[in-house]
Design brief:
Length: about 120
């Protein structure tokens, strides 16, 4: 925050991916009382031409907030919806782990059988 405030008063910020990668940053900035906007990530075809560039993406996000084209408000990451989302992610992860364990268990049992 000190770095950003070194350029002047910080009133608004644009964050890309407020529901996933930027969720922690979104919570932090909200706690600081900064007005937040969801910034749409650059189109893939534009990134394909020039490559992924975090400094360019950050400048584009800042320009869209200043120009007023970033108008979407980030979702609140609390309450019942967030709780259900966390439970679904945990369940999906557990199901994947169980599915990966099954073939391993089968191979272990099969290799333990006496040959002959």
């Amino acid at each position: 925050m000190n770095w950003a405030r070194g350029f002047g008063p910080l009133e608004r910020a644009g964050v890309e991916g407020t529901g996933s990668f930027g969720a922690g940053l979104t919570r932090f900035l909200r706690a600081q009382g900064i007005e937040l906007f969801e910034v749409i990530r650059p189109k893939r075809r534009d990134q394909y031409r020039s490559g992924k560039s975090d400094p360019i993406d950050a400048e584009t996000a800042a320009r869209s907030v200043l120009a007023g084209t970033a108008i979407a408000q980030p979702k609140e990451a609390d309450g019942e919806v967030e709780m259900i989302r966390s439970l679904r992610i945990t369940r999906r992860s557990a199901l994947k782990a169980r599915a990966l364990r099954r073939p391993t268990r089968y191979r272990l049992c099969w290799s333990a059988l006496p040959k002959g």
